[in-house]
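Design request, tokens follow.
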């Protein structure tokens, strides 16, 4: 199995849906961590969006970004202005613009690399960049959903507690924090030319 080169992985790479009609459940028999024998680990990688976290983390809140790491690739979700995938991949624990805080073991998945690629492709139909919402559908909501589908476990509540505060969150967060890392995808696309020139994540992998 070949993955993208280290040089390539330093840039954010959006996942593109193939245009197939979405199905309700691609993998209806995904086992949870307690049910799976063997498999590969799934990690939640948590980042600080602000140094303020060092002072308020004791209270069980903070401003965090997070991504899901499996098979040496980290997947996350962010905002842009188009009805196309908001899911992107980066080198694990090196998401540009954020300070890595910790990796949390979430459980095991029995899916192989090709199945993970197909799974993420399907999820990209539900996580388009223009549906991102700071309070109701952010990167942490995405990770919670993906973690549960892959391992049967939910992410720790403190990771997204600030979003659940609701309307208060809008007045607490600095404006700069409301622009997610996926904004950098647009910069990457401009450097490459047209958006269509970016290859889908599942096409960059060779078959086993």
């Amino acid at each position: 199995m070949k993955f993208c080169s280290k040089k390539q992985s330093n840039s954010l790479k959006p996942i593109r849906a193939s245009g197939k009609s979405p199905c309700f459940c691609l993998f209806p028999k995904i086992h949870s961590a307690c049910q799976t024998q063997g498999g590969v680990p799934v990690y939640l990688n948590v980042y600080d969006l602000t140094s303020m976290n060092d002072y308020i983390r004791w209270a069980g809140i903070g401003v965090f970004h997070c991504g899901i790491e499996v098979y040496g690739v980290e997947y996350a979700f962010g905002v842009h202005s188009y009805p196309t995938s908001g899911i992107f991949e980066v080198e694990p624990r090196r998401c540009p613009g954020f300070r890595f805080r910790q990796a949390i073991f979430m459980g095991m998945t029995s899916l192989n690399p090709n199945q993970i690629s197909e799974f993420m492709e399907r999820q990209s139909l539900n996580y388009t960049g223009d549906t991102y919402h700071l309070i109701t559908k952010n990167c942490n909501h995405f990770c919670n959903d993906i973690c549960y589908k892959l391992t049967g476990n939910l992410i720790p509540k403190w990771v997204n507690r600030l979003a659940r505060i609701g309307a208060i969150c809008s007045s607490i967060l600095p404006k700069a924090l409301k622009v997610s890392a996926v904004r950098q995808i647009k910069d990457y696309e401009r450097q490459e030319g047209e958006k269509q020139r970016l290859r889908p994540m599942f096409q960059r992998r060779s078959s086993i």
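Comment from the thread starter after seeing the answer: thanks! Helices lie at 6-9, 53-56, 113-124, 139-151, 161-164, 167-172, 183-192.
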